[in-house]
Amino acid sequence: MEDYKFLFKVVLIGEAGVGKTCLVRRFCQGVYPIGQAATIGVDFMIKNMEIKGERIKLQIWDTAGQERFRTITQSYYRSANAIIIVYDISNQPSFDRLPEWLRELRQHINDRVTLILVGNKSDLTESREIPYHIGELFAQRHNMRFIETSAKESANVEQIFTELTETLLKQA
Ligand code: GDP
Ligand code: MG
């Protein structure tokens, strides 16, 4: 017998170096990889959640380096329930590439997929390049939720996945 009622597939995209793997490791394993970060080496990680008395299994897909080569394929997005688009608040190019990521996404997904925009590395206040409200505005314009996180300081990481799962539950 299955020990969960819902299975949701969540995928992370965004430029290399923005902290996707660290976010997944922080959420799934409770660690922040020190030094050499962080090729998971598997396609996905599993996290069991319980929200409002429902047991949910999240299957979380990390791109594991493919983003460098732009070889992310249809199969990666297939059957995604939610997509987390990550940029680095201290890195303008990672933000400037968002429209391109969205364009690519839209070729592969339908309108019902839940999108959430994440500005990671919120701990880097000194070297911030993208103000909070600019990220928020971009998300609003493209019909996405928005959240700033720090995988390093474990700020808002749980919230990404909790909010997202709550949204998916409402649609289920
Ligand atoms: P990915 O290529 O998107 O998977 O990015 P990684 O998770 O491998 O992280 C890239 C680099 O950013 C690593 O050196 C991490 O230590 C660093 N990093 C990731 N998350 C954070 C964060 O929240 N704050 C800070 N300051 N650095 C981070
Ligand atoms: Mg990675």
UniProtKB/TrEMBL annotation:
Presence of the UniProt keyword Transport in the record: no
Signal peptide region: none
Main location: membrane
UniProt keyword terms in alphabetical order: GTP-binding, Membrane, Nucleotide-binding
GO function term, MF aspect, one: GTP binding
Annotated SUPFAM superfamilies: P-loop containing nucleoside triphosphate hydrolases
Protein name per the record: Ras-related Rab-30
Organism listed in the record: Brachionus plicatilis (Marine rotifer)
